[in-house]
Amino acid sequence: MNVDLTPRPSAGGLSTTRPTARNSSPANDATKPDANSSPEHVEPSSASHRHETPFRITGGFLTGMLAIVVVAVLLRTIGTNTPLDSNDHVRLAYDCTFNWGWYWCFQINYGPLHPALTKLTAVVVTALNLPMTETLWRLPLILAGSALPVVTFFIVRRLVATKDLHANAQALQDSSATARSTPSPLQGEGWGEGCTHQRPEVCAREQRQPMEIARRSENVRTTVIHIAPWAAAVWVAVFPPFVADARYPWGYESLGVFCAVLSLLMLSRYLDKPTGLRAWVAGTSFALYLWSHLFVYALPIVWLHWIGATANWNKRAIFQLVQRTGLWLPPVGALAITVGMHLRFGGGPLGRFTYKAEITDTAFRGWNAPLELLQAWLGHFGWTMAAFVAIGFIVAAKSAFTVRLRATALWWWPLLFAMPYFALMCFQPPPGRISPYLSQASLALVLLTAVVLLPRLILLGGKKLTFACIGLTTLSLLIGTIDSNLGENRLAAATGVNATWGAARPNRGYRTMGWYVQKFVPEDAVVFTFHDFGGLELLPATYYCGRRCLAFCDMTPQQSLALFDSYKDDVTVIVIEKRLGVARSFGPDFEQVATISEGDHRLIDIYARKSASLPQMGLPVEEYDARYLREFATRVPGTPPTVAKALPSYQDVMARAEAIYQQSDREKIAVHPEARD
Description:
59% of the residues lie in helices and 6% in strands. With 677 residues, it is mainly α. The radius of gyration is 30 Å and the shape is elongated.
């Protein structure tokens, strides 16, 4: 007996399967899959619209998805409205504030989509005369990260609800040798024919088994369609690296993973029903992905595998799928613009790769590099989810070499994405923080686990065990996310989660400092800021002060002191964070004019030349942060008056400073490889 598992719409709008018995005949035998092929080997055709599963948006769906999105938004926004306190955190806000036009977006190393969306947000907020707060600088990432569970739900549902993935039903059928050998009563055969028992009740039970197995297959399939997409959406909503990426103002990974899943969803819709409109939507979403990320090499290969598996790797069928202009013209155009802008202005992803190649150290580091990469991945998943993902990866690996299905591309996605990092870590000093760069590979593993492991878990253990596993993994991820991003990472040893690049940061008083400097310090004054490997480096000092600042980046406080001694004759104002522990007299020409505090805790001391005659004030951040937002935070996309008068020369100076920094970076790496960021 053969069971047709082609999805058909049910009354509730969800896809179900109605088993249809078909008589065995030579004609039917000719259409059967090869007996030696895998039971999972089901090839969708190029015109597979009949595999598309209808979905009806109900009140229950909206309520559940709204709850997930609300949780995702809260995790990505709580504690983000504090000053940006390092070059990396303030870089995009600085660029949007001090750059005219839009072409500079194509000079950003990590693609133009993130800076363009951020500047568009700033333009709209400024037009509404609202303050451009630190949370709003993260708005595109917050929106993308919060929408990621929604697109994840739909892509996982499409994969588990189509003919691509009904191995659970096939496994149920193959679990019974009797079912495979006993003809069905629907075939019109006699009671005794084909039955190995003489007792009629035993023979009848054997003949009922195929229909019972088909019914169980349908139940398992319906259960998978209901559970797997929701589990994936919940995991993504609370997943530590995705939460951290959305909270990090430079976290383009959050936008990249959203565009990646969206492009796969649109491609899946096109392959289910190839139309011109769907081709353009899929191609455009893929083009956005190519502009959203620095490393884009893995997903195109996944796309090609998906198309090839859909067409059964038939050249003619593949050509029919890709002959629509809308499918390939947008991504080709996106790549052409990226190359053209690099040739015209320099920089961009191609410029970043060139720079990386120049500083590459080809010395072999040893075989511990893969372990470092796995450790970084473990920090994404934690102990519980890591075990779950590992099992899912093994299950997927078993299928990847025996079947050609769309979902098997998910098995290659994390490997393709991680391979260059293995090479990078083996043959040159590793980046200072490699974990954020692996978020896309982690997303692929989460999708893979939901698609290939949950159906088998439901098949083997039933709903109770499945819900218990989903609940345990979700709870561990949620605790790890809260601890890493909203807490102080005190539970890292217990949870195994270490995704702290989006952690809530304390208020260091930079907005209040900016209010005082912009309110009272002359526009032609020079402000010197002491800093370390974070804090008031060049970009945050300039952004908040709106004045010329003497600062650099990646310096110790002692190096800042040496820099001050070289330029103290040109300095009008000195800014010192109390946390740095810098205590010295700046001579009789300087006096302390302001102290910034939060409650009883002193944050910043401001000194100025006596000749500047600045007012002496005590500045509590609770009051003056709000005044800064009202008076000075709505200056985007314009620039402070001093900078606007001489913008070309200012940008030339900044370009030369960037070149000097890169040169010093190369020299620093040559002497101290561990200092590489």
